[in-house]
Input
Amino acid sequence: MIASVSTLRYAGNALTRLTPLVFSLALTAFAQQQAFRPPAVPLVAHDPYLSIWSMSDRLTDENTKHWTGTEQALGSLIRIDGVTFRVMGRDPRAFAALPQQSVEVLPTRTIYNFEGSGVHLQFTFLTPALPRDLEILSRPVTYLIWTANAVDGKPHDVAVYLEAAASLAVNTADQPVEWSRFRLDGMDALRLGSQQQPVLEKDGDNLRIDWGYLYLAAPADAHAGEAAAGLNGLRTAFAASGKVPVVDDTETNRPAGARGAAGLAVSVPMGNVGATPVSRHLLLAYDDLWSLTYLERRVRPYWRRNGATAADLLLSAEHDFTSLLQRSEAFDRDLMADLRKAGGEHFAQMTALSYRQSIAAHKLAVDADGTLLFFPKENFSNGCIDTVDVFYPSAPLFLLLNPKLLAGSVEPVMAYASMPRWRFDFAPHDLGRYPKANGQVYGGGEKTEENQMPVEESSNMIILTAAMARAEGNTTLAQRYWPALTKWAAYLKDKGLDPENQLSTDDFAGHLAHNSNLSIKAIVALGAYAQLAKATGHAAEAATYRKTAQEFAKRWVEMAADGDHYVLAFDKKGTWSQKYNLVWDKALGLDLFPPSVAQKEIAYYLTHQNKYGLPLDNRSEYTKLDWIYWTASLAGSQKDFDALIEPTWKFAQDSPSRVPLTDWYWTQDAKQRGFQARSVVGGLFMKMLTDEGLWKKWAAATY
Output
């Protein structure tokens, strides 16, 4: 295991009074206790197309990959006193890897530490995903920062190198690419993109972007060398001189995966490095030009809403670098402190790992009328876009840190459901297949009621609308779409207590009639609707639906009772399931169910856990990561919460499935069952919503 260097140094100061042997043993034990090995590490994570990860223990063990597992190689070398080492990427193997000491994943930063040949190197990937600043959040720019200092009391001549393979700009390796260079005001930039530029032509799941342009840019004062050419030759030149020859390859139409394929490369001298740290940075960006289609019209990324160009993007990003680094450091520090306060170190590590993943499974765009669009993609699920039962589990992250982002998912569904083309009395499931949000495709789409999720999606929409009203202190969205909410509430009043043979969000488990957890969701949604009705001046409806929800909750306790727990389905005694939907009764302050329900369930769950977590229900040994965190948030004590969360940390630590955090895995061996890199891991933040003080604090935060 690899521990955080800063953590170890702090611990070392506290241990210096020990004997050398005891000190060494204590330090080793501390490192093993604190170290966290994510199954995959986010490097450049912005949206479903710009999402690059390290899927190995060390940054030099493998080449970097897109979240789908397809190689999209970023590489970095460091030259110390004429000797070249790898610090990112498996290739070229002719160069040894600089020893890696640690990796730390924070909400907006991934920090690697290396040390060798008398030099300590900190290599940081900064994606300033500041949730309240939509302009910054929407910028598809990651800063790569190298900070070096001598640790042996001697000065060292240091230079660093970064390369980006052509595969970052294509879907498949046989697609030809082109490149060019630009001189901006105070910056030099290289650009690479597919030759054909099939803008928004394909939709589906296992896809990479093949339109728009990748940019690699350096500030003028970095004295960088840049080239677009064969990467083998550029690496050799850097190893020989510490510089990239400023000579571009003129053969710009070769396939991205051709032998000797070209890419973009930049070398940056750091000079004579001594004990005082020296820092350099580069910008990696991707301009997709057009992001999505929404109801048959193309829409721009949010950062382009006022006509900004790629040049504006790069210049603004460079201008803001210092302030964004400081703001990101403050955001990470304060959020991590509250995550630790809420759930301890391992909870904080897991939620930090989920942060950029959840955001990067969305695209932030804007409609022609200015409506905010924040559309998730069902990564390795079915490729759907803006799926209701996907943004429902991810909602805690956005309810805590910026409800306007959640509104960017919810409102377009409400608008679609208010159109004549949607003829059902329940809410839709999705808006299409990414990146085309042109109408529901799941379960027969708009044509049939079969294979829909009526109780699931209607409840989700009402609950989230009430949660946004609670977070923002206003009911504007609810009032705008009150007829739709009322129609869905009426459906739940009729169908929600004892659901028919329907799918729920856990559709991989198949249809299930009399689903007790789905019934809880409907009951909570009716209570949430009553809460909204009261807040919007609909007093009669508020009283009626509040009474109905209370009566249904009492009946549920009787219908679901099975001795020391409650059943999976009302007609199946001897079964059990996680009642994760009950958490909204607590978070929204509805007080529909007696506290004894949660207490009884938590006690039962603690006797049914496996090594790597609590199964979803009695039918299988697999689980859902997000639902465990919701279920744990029902616990009445920190001890019980920790007991449910700790196995999930072990899952992430031990999983042999090296993919961005999967939410569907086997609890006996930590292997992935399905799904990866999905937005639903934003649900790991649910504990924060059950603490009213923390929720209010972050609702008022600015950062």
